[in-house]
Amino acid sequence: MTESTYSFKVGMTCSGCSGAVDRILSKTAGVSKYEISLENQTVVVHSTLSKDEVFEAIKKSGKPVEAL
Amino acid sequence: MTESTYSFKVGMTCSGCSGAVDRILSKTAGVSKYEISLENQTVVVHSTLSKDEVFEAIKKSGKPVEAL
């Protein structure tokens, strides 16, 4: 399956916030790799899912998310 | 429907963490009221849902959750 790379702006204010996003993405089937930057408030995801599907997965965290 | 009150220990380390749990519970159908204490790391939920259902809703945040 083709893999795409998507970037999101995610409101994370401490390592507990970024850790929560980490925990969610690690359990999301179809997500192979991701980088979370607390400093830049960004999450970059490599996935066979659609951008919308990844967006919804991150949104479940309750954090403010915006597609970049 | 009968409403029950459930307590959980939730790992929240900043107001972004508690805000995320707040956002999730505010959107969970069947949850009428809740109190989140960042200081005590607790979430008390009044709901017509089962304790397991509320547990799963909070767990979606990616935060460490424990039923009390």
TrEMBL record, chains A, B:
Domain HMA intervals: 3-66
SUPFAM superfamilies hit by this protein: HMA, heavy metal-associated domain (SSF55008)
Domain of life the protein comes from: Eukaryota
Secreted as UniProt keyword: no
Keywords: Chaperone, Copper, Copper transport, Ion transport, Metal-binding, Transport
TM segment ranges: none
Coiled-coil spans in chain: none
Family assignment from sequence similarity: Belongs to the ATX1 family.
Entry protein name: Cytosolic copper metallochaperone
